[in-house]
Design a protein that fits this description.
Layout: H1 4-29, H2 33-60
Helix pairs in contact: 1-2
Length: 61
């Protein structure tokens, strides 16, 4: 039987990867430096959360 927590974690990780990709596209198209700074910050936060989930998943298996 599959673990529902691991399924939720996997879904959340997939969503985070999609969010990060979309933010990188916005960053490439952005010309305003203040907006770029905010986008970079959001990318870093999402990457950190993704890495935390990946570590938890690795430790749980």
């Amino acid at each position: 039987m599959s673990d529902p927590i691991m399924n939720i974690t996997g879904n959340r990780m997939f969503q985070l990867k999609q969010d990060i990709a979309a933010l990188r596209e916005c960053l490439a198209a952005c010309v305003d430096e203040d907006r770029k700074k905010k986008i970079r910050s959001e990318i870093m936060e999402k990457e950190t959360y993704y890495n935390i989930l990946a570590d938890r998943q690795r430790l749980g298996q």
